[in-house]
Structure formats: structure tokens, C-alpha cells
Specification:
18 strands; alpha+beta; v583 fold; 5-stranded mixed beta sheet; Enterococcus faecalis V583 fold
């Protein structure tokens, strides 16, 4: 004690910096600790969080769900047609990214993509008639997530589109995704011009059959080892898929050449994939979806199994709350814009591709992909810091996905909604930025965060499900 008093006292100030001013004026030496109340100060969410932390039922449920996630083994089984493969897919249905949304609420790029899908299906002769059809109520719209599927940006999947079929070999559940069109004027950014529709039909008539023949020759293709290798080659398999696409091509080309399929079609398919560094993205998404669906539906679990956005609202689902979505307004992404574009031109964040972050890839694995900062902004040190920060809100590290820049420790994975509220650290997402008008396409890329409100709602709902009610005195009015 004598030593303590001789060295002088240091006073810890928690909260507002201004609280320490009087200490300084009195000659003291405060140590400032940045702190904000859990759950952003929401009293009902804070109460629910306090009841769920270290709750035996929740801890056991998270162990079960996280173990199923880690054990999942996504394997490409082949390519099929959406109406025949996707559970619950109807003949007059169009799937979209994010939580449920009606046609009238959809943002410009999503409406443009829906019009393109109608033209692709041949349900209307031109864009004006397609719009009238979409407005008329005869087409069903549903989130891709409700049909075990995912799609980037607008995420549109219509009945006759080809889809990847990815199966979790450890659990039997399947996940699906559409095929990547490349960059430029593409459906996922809302483009629907004749050249876009022509490309989609070529993908269905040539690309998909050629790849199906190659996969039939190759046999089931394991995705987890391929993703792991790509991570060590500088990908994070969301916005950077150069290595993964090349590794996929390396596996598929020999099988395609020995498949007996039309040589010209194979040549066209290989040329298309070789010219599209983003080709693997949709496979990465389906792989992550299959891993997270393996962990979904565990009563009491606070593990996040989906984060997605539709250009209007951002939605989150938990393993322990079934199919319920917890939503908040979708943010506008801050980042690097292409010449002549800026934030005023951007649509709010959209796409199912944040399924990669939900699985511990994408923004959570930025440390392994320093080149990505040239695309989304920041520095390599920022990328490493982002990965480190995500460890505070996850249940563990996925050793299957080792990160060289982090001494080959696994990527942080298994977002725990409780920890998000407890720390106020929001899941980071790196993403492309779409123009707010249909058909303009991508205008930049950047980094955003999932909204806190989604997790606030989710924790309150989970607490209610396990029998923890919020006292009337602190319920919101």
C-alpha cells in the first residue's frame, strides 16, 4: 500500500471523456476506458442478455449447433434446374435475396432483376409487360433462404435457371445457388437488356450441361479443402475469389475433357470461367449455406445462421428461433466508388452473399486477403484488425480454415448474438455496391456492419422462447 501511495494514484474513468475533466483539473491522472452499455442501452435487450449469458440451456444448445457447423462437409453433387431441385419452388415463383419483401417495396436493382427473370422465363414479351406482371400479384416472391438457396446481390432465382447442388456429406442437408454471370451488366445488379437474357440462356443451354458432364465424370467435389487452399492463396471467398475460381477450374477441366461432351461447348465454358474471377462466389455461398443450415434449428441456440439483405432491410436468423427474421433498415455501404459515382448513387446494402461472413469467411477472414483492401478500402493492417475483432463475437475458431497472417489459427466463426449485444461489436461485411437504379450495375465496393437492432430483437425473442420474460417495468412503451 505504501508503494501504491508513493507512486501516485491513477483513476479509471469509464464512459464519457468529459467525466475525467474534473480529475485532470484537480491534478489527477485518469485512465480513460471506452465503454458503452450492452445492447446499445436498450433496457429490455439488456435484461434478456443478462438472463441468457452463461445460461445452461443456451450453452448446451450452442455446443450442439456449433459442432454441427464445424462437422459439415459441403460437396458439389452437380447442377440441376431450380424448379426440380429447390424444396417448395413453384412454377410461378421468383426467389430473391434477403428477408421477405413485396414487389412494391423492392429497390431498383431487385425490381430490375425480377423483370429480367420474367423475360428469361418467357412470361412476358418486353420489360413493360414484365413489370405489369410483377405488379399484378400472379407471381409469388420469396426469400431464397426459405428454399435452402442463396444468391448474390438481388439474388434472383427463377424456376428454369440452373443451380448448383451442394450437399453436406456429414448431415445430408442440401443448399443451392444460381450461377455467376461475371461482371458488368448482369442480372444480379438489375440489368435485363437482351444481351443479359441471352447470356443467361447460354448459361442454361451450354455452360450448365458442360459442367454437369464434367462433374459426372469427376464425381462429388469437396468444397471445404478447396476453400481452405484458396484462403492460403489470398482469397476470402466473398469479394476475392481469384484463387478459388482457378482451383475449381483446375479440378474441372481434366474431367470435362474426358467427359465425352461436345468439345466446342467445353471450350466455351472453360473460356467463360477463366475470364470470371468471381465464378466461385456462388459455390462459396452454397457451401456456407449448407454448413450453417446444418446448425440451424437447435432450440435455445444463439448461433446466427443467416445474415442477409434485400436492399431495403437487413435480416438475421438464429438457430434457436426457427425461421423468424429479425430486421432493421439496410445500411448504405461506405467504401471506394468507381469514377463519377458516390454514396448518393448507391443502393442500400443487398444480397445473400453475407452468408460467407456468417460462416466466418468474407470480412471475417480479411486478414488472409490483404489485396482485398485495394477493392474495399483500408490497409492490410485494417484487414488483420477486422479479423481479430470478430473473435470477440464468435463461439470459436474454425481450424479447417487456417489464416496464414494469424499464425495459421482458424478463422473466427459462429456468431453469437449474445456476444454482439454484450460487446456492441457488429459483424463486419465486405461487399460490392450496386447503383440504386436498375441495370447500371456495380459502382464500387466497401465495408459495412450488420445493424445492432437485428441482434437486439433476436436476443429478446430467444429469451422469450426459453421462458425468460422481460419485466413490465422495463418493457418498451
Amino acid at each position: 500500500m505504501n508503494t501504491l501511495f508513493r507512486e501516485g494514484q491513477r483513476i479509471i474513468n469509464v464512459g464519457l471523456q468529459s467525466f475525467a475533466d474534473s480529475i485532470v483539473q484537480a491534478g489527477g491522472k485518469p485512465v480513460q476506458v471506452d465503454w458503452t452499455p450492452p445492447a446499445g442501452g436498450n433496457r429490455a435487450a439488456g435484461w434478456s442478455l443478462a438472463q441468457l449469458l452463461n445460461h445452461p440451456e443456451v450453452e448446451r444448445a450452442n455446443e450442439t449447433a456449433y459442432a454441427a457447423f464445424l462437422a459439415a462437409q459441403p460437396v458439389v453433387m452437380g447442377i440441376g434446374v431450380a424448379r426440380r431441385q429447390l424444396p417448395g419452388m413453384q412454377d410461378r415463383m421468383i426467389l430473391h435475396a434477403g428477408p421477405p419483401i413485396a414487389w412494391q417495396e423492392m429497390c431498383g436493382p431487385m425490381q430490375g432483376a425480377v423483370i429480367g427473370a420474367i423475360l428469361y422465363e418467357g412470361w412476358a414479351a418486353d420489360a413493360a409487360k414484365a413489370r405489369l406482371l410483377a405488379e399484378g400479384g400472379t407471381i409469388a416472391f420469396a426469400p431464397a433462404h426459405h428454399h435452402a438457396a442463396v444468391g448474390p446481390m438481388a439474388g434472383v432465382i427463377s424456376p428454369s435457371m440452373p443451380v448448383w447442388v451442394v450437399e453436406n456429406a456429414a448431415g445430408g442437408n442440401r443448399a443451392y445457388s444460381n450461377m455467376n454471370e461475371g461482371l458488368g451488366k448482369v442480372l444480379r445488379f438489375g440489368a435485363n437488356s437482351p444481351d443479359v437474357i441471352k447470356r443467361l440462356r447460354w448459361m442454361a443451354d451450354v455452360l450448365a450441361p458442360a459442367l454437369s458432364a464434367a462433374l459426372a465424370k469427376l464425381g462429388p467435389l469437396e468444397l471445404k479443402p478447396l476453400i481452405a487452399q484458396a484462403l492460403q492463396m489470398g482469397d476470402e471467398v466473398h469479394n476475392r475469389n481469384a484463387a478459388a475460381s482457378s482451383l475449381f477450374l483446375k479440378r474441372i477441366v481434366p474431367a470435362a475433357l474426358h467427359s465425352g461432351f461436345d468439345a466446342g461447348a467445353i471450350a466455351d465454358a472453360v473460356t467463360f470461367i477463366a475470364g470470371n474471377d468471381h465464378f466461385f462466389l456462388n459455390l462459396s455461398m452454397a457451401a456456407c449455406k449448407s454448413m450453417l443450415d446444418a446448425a440451424h434449428g437447435v432450440p435455445g441456440s444463439s448461433l446466427v445462421t443467416a445474415m442477409s439483405r434485400n436492399g431495403v432491410r437487413f435480416g438475421v436468423r438464429l438457430s434457436g428461433t426457427g425461421g423468424q427474421w429479425f430486421e432493421a433498415p439496410s445500411p448504405v455501404v461506405g467504401g471506394l466508388f468507381f469514377p463519377s459515382y458516390g454514396p448518393e448513387h448507391a443502393a442500400p446494402d443487398m444480397g445473400d452473399s453475407s452468408i460467407t461472413e456468417t460462416a466466418g469467411l468474407g470480412g471475417f477472414a480479411m486478414a488472409t486477403a490483404p489485396a482485398i483492401v485495394q477493392f474495399v478500402g483500408g490497409t492490410p493492417q485494417d484487414a488483420i484488425a477486422n479479423t481479430r475483432e470478430m473473435r470477440h463475437i464468435t463461439l470459436g475458431r474454425n481450424s479447417a480454415f487456417a489464416l496464414p497472417a494469424m499464425n495459421f489459427t482458424g478463422t473466427p466463426a459462429g456468431i453469437d448474438a449474445r456476444r454482439v449485444l454484450d460487446t456492441n461489436i457488429l459483424p463486419i461485411i465486405n461487399t460490392g455496391i450496386a447503383h440504386k437504379e436498375a441495370g447500371v450495375g456495380q459502382i464500387g465496393a466497401g465495408i459495412t456492419r450488420a445493424p445492432l437492432e437485428c441482434f437486439t430483437q433476436a436476443v429478446i425473442a430467444l429469451a422469450s422462447r426459453i421462458g425468460v420474460s422481460v419485466p413490465a417495468s422495463i418493457r418498451p412503451a
